[in-house]
Specification:
By secondary structure, the chain is of the alpha+beta class. Helix content is 18%, strand content 31%. Strand 13 and strand 14 form a beta hairpin. The radius of gyration is 21 Å and the shape is globular. The protein starts with a strand and ends with a helix. The N terminus is likely disordered.
């Protein structure tokens, strides 16, 4: 995603009361500060199917290429290997407009940080106090090695580590979320469909961002956790026998949109646990 411009909105409500024509002392509420990314919206929302190599011959703009790659849930190396790709007719907007997550989720206002991974749309999103901060593509677990769904917390991380499935695979910017199963998110090739052995693959720029943005757990000793890291919710399922879901965007540009109410419903069973863990961390 191109770098968002952050502005700070400060809301200060001052209540006045008057008695016998005299103004009483003003009572001020707590100042609330929120970070709100400013994003450029494309003028139109429509998609066409095109040959990747032919499209690349005519389009050299890096920002537009980033959007086209993300929309096809792939990376630069694999983009040319996909014969037929979907391309937005207007590539002038911020990448968040082309991916399905909502820009805000009010029920997450009390949650400092959270990462969401959508299996059906093969995308991820980060929120800070209910505001979408970053989003991008992912390739999750293949049919016989599905990524587990539910609530997790980031724990340990390593800038470079070796896969437990194949010691010849080097994983960059790896952040573990399920210690016993060895599941985490990291940079690795994105062929444009769920292909991993249960981990959550990311483009390198996104993997590095999450590596630096999310928090590690803090341990008391080798057996006990003082407090957990950043909450991660993996949700939904993927139909491996159907065409790639994002191809639906050609006939319906909003086919994969995830509404705020959907996110709230997904998060609702986990919210108390997330807030309790967050409170534990703040008090430590």
């Amino acid at each position: 995603m191109k770098k968002s411009i952050i502005v700070f909105g400060i809301i200060a409500i001052i209540l006045f009361s008057c008695k016998n024509g005299n103004e009483a002392d003003a009572e001020k509420t707590t100042v609330v500060t929120k970070k709100i990314p400013i994003r450029k919206e494309p003028k139109t929302f429509s998609y066409t199917l095109q040959n990747s190599k032919e499209w690349l011959k005519k389009n050299k703009n890096e920002e537009e290429l980033d959007i086209a790659i993300a929309v096809n849930r792939t990376d630069k190396e694999n983009f040319t290997k996909i014969d037929s790709v979907i391309i937005p007719t207007d590539l002038s907007g911020d990448i968040a407009f082309y991916l399905p997550f909502p820009f805000k989720v009010d029920s997450l206002q009390k949650v400092d940080k959270i990462i969401l991974f959508s299996y059906p749309t093969q995308t991820f999103a980060t929120y800070e106090n209910g505001i979408l901060i970053r989003t991008g593509p992912t390739n999750m677990g293949r049919a016989k090695d599905k990524t587990p769904v539910g609530l997790f917390f980031t724990n340990w991380k390593a800038e470079k580590t070796t896969s437990t499935f194949n010691d010849e695979w080097d994983l960059k910017w790896n952040f573990n979320i399920e210690n016993k199963l060895g599941v985490g998110f990291h940079q690795y090739t994105l062929p444009g469909y769920p292909a991993s052995h249960s981990c959550l693959r990311l483009q390198e720029k996104d993997a590095k961002y999450l590596y630096e943005w999310a928090d590690q757990w803090v341990l008391v000793d080798d057996e006990n956790v003082k407090f957990k890291g950043t909450p991660v919710v993996v949700f939904g399922s993927y139909n491996y026998d159907a065409p790639k879901p994002w191809l639906q965007l050609v006939t319906n540009p909003k086919a994969l949109a995830i509404s705020e109410s959907e996110v709230e419903k997904i998060i609702s069973p986990y919210l108390d646990t997330i807030l309790k863990e967050q409170d534990k961390k703040k008090k430590s």
